[in-house]
Structures
1.
Amino acid sequence: MGSVVPGVAEVVRVIARDNGETVQVHGAEAARRLGLSTQAPTTPVYHTSASSRTIRIGNATVRMVHTSNRRRLQFAGEAAGLALAALWYLGRGNATPEAVARIEAAIGPDAFARLRSADMPAWMADALDAGAAVRG
């Protein structure tokens, strides 16, 4: 029998754990995973609390981009963190009530409640409130 090769995300998680860093998937990938975009990044990109670097994992090249903005790394590795990354990526103009409703449907009510507890800019909190108002 052949061996099972771990995926890029799993290897990145292990590297982060071993180096004591926090990593979060880039917002473009988060938006894709949540059904907000169909564009798939050609190179996996992660935000990291450590230095920026490029690593090879099997045949994949992975970019690790340093961010000093701790708000971007909140809830890293959780559904709420994925949603937060997607919202940062969408930005003020594209974080519509419809996008927020799609995020909530994708991550579920518990993770959405956790997302609402995040330290975020006012525009993002307003977008979450507007999404809640649409749902009733």
2.
Amino acid sequence: MNIAKSIITVATSFVFSTAMASEKSPKENSDWFLIASSQDNTRSYSGKAGSLEITNTKNGSQVAIIIGQIEDKTNNTLQYNKWYVSVDDCKKESGKMALLDISGEYIDSIDFVLGGNNIASGIADVICGAYDIRQKEIEGKGL
């Protein structure tokens, strides 16, 4: 995964609801951007530009959430989900990335470490990076 160089650009696209990103998915004219691919390149994980949302879970934890797309190239299918990381886990730089169905129902969670080399870590890098930029804008610390 070559994620680190694109986090700021991608996060900015979430915050400002634009379609720009450093890497596009195969559909060049879409609002989806590539976050990571499986090692055998049979699956790709993309985020929807402009989909960052800061909200609370049913138990009251504040989370940063995006809409995700998983493309399975072996059977030519697309799956849509929501992915979130708690704000506390972003601050700790490790924890769980939750996988939800598109309506927001919990499916599973996966361990991540910011800067790590698994798919969940790449997705969490983007989510937490976008959250950080959003917070700096809210606090007036951006340029």
